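Regression test case RT-17, inverse folding.

Input:
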C-alpha cells in the first residue's frame, strides 16, 4: 500500500494541519486549524495510520460497494470508529 505522509487530525480528520514544533522527545507536534475542532495540538500516534488520505478513499469505496462497517475495519485493519467517523464526515449514509 502506498502511504503518503499526509497528516490529519485524529479527532476531526481535517488535513488543515500546521506543524508546531516538537516535544521533549523529538516527536513532531501538530496543530489542528479547524476552528470547530476541540483538539488543538496533537502528536502522531504510531498506531495511527499515516496514510489517512488514501484510507478515506478506501473506506468510502468499500462502503459504496456494500461492505459493512465491521468488514471494512477488518479488511483495512483499522478501528471500527475510524470507519464510522470517516463515513459521517463524508456524509455516506450506510449505517447498518
Ligand atoms: Zn481537528
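Golden output:
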Amino acid at each position: 500500500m502506498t502511504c503518503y505522509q499526509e497528516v490529519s487530525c485524529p479527532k476531526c480528520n481535517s488535513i488543515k494541519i500546521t506543524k508546531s514544533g516538537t516535544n521533549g522527545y523529538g516527536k513532531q507536534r501538530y496543530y489542528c486549524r479547524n476552528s470547530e475542532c476541540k483538539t488543538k495540538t496533537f502528536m502522531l500516534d504510531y498506531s495511527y495510520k499515516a496514510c489517512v488520505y488514501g484510507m478515506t478513499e478506501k473506506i468510502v469505496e468499500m462502503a459504496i460497494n456494500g461492505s459493512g462497517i465491521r468488514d471494512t475495519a477488518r479488511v483495512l485493519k483499522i478501528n471500527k470508529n475510524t470507519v464510522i467517523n470517516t463515513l459521517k464526515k463524508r456524509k455516506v449514509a450506510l449505517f447498518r
